[in-house]
Amino acid sequence: MLLSLEDDTGAGQEPMRTGLAVAGAALVELALLGRIAVVGKDIVVRDAAPVGEPAVDPVLAALAGREKPRKARDWVELLQKDAVNAARGRLLERGLVREERKRVWGIFPTRRYPEADGSVERELRDTLEAVVHGGAEPDERTVALLGLLHGAGLQELAFPEAEKKALDRRLTELAQGQWSVPLVRDAVRAVQAATTATIAAVTAVTLT
């Protein structure tokens, strides 16, 4: 979410793709914490106990509240609006962005989120740069984030000046590397497939 917001204006970039990626990130976070797993194509809850994170616990509750498991694509589509609002809320709580409310043409209300504290984003970008272009050894969460960005077609938010083909090759290489926790790998791949399918479907409808 932080990578998608323009620092000065607070305008969101690629809102549809970002929404899908943020919803997918909540699922991957739950996989990292051992709360969910991917069985076949379905997301299955392994442990419904709250994790204490306001941006993630509502997602876990929604998953656990279903009698029958659903596919990653269903959850990514269903959860994206709430996941984006929760992520923005957490950025505000941490003082990383501030909220500006305005009206377009004096009628339509809009909200933007300019940067208030750039330290976390700078640290994040430095970490991603070190892994992708510096050859640093990534941890599981960093590889998962890169996989989410790549799957949603948002890698240019993190690497705006990178050569596209070389960047794609490097991100693919990282995604195919050794994962210490297979269920996290499975969750990332399921979310990548879900995001790609949803974007393709929306694009096809838009073009017809």
UniProtKB/TrEMBL annotation:
Major subcellular site: Golgi
Subcellular localization(s) per the UniProt record: Golgi apparatus membrane
Record GO terms (molecular function): phosphatidylinositol-4-phosphate binding
Keywords in alphabetical order: Golgi apparatus, Lipid-binding, Membrane
GO-annotated cellular components: cytoplasm; endomembrane system
Membrane association type: Peripheral membrane protein
Pfam families xref list: GPP34
Entry-linked InterPro entries: GPP34-like, GPP34-like_sf
Protein name per its UniProtKB record: GPP34 family phosphoprotein
Organism: Streptomyces agglomeratus
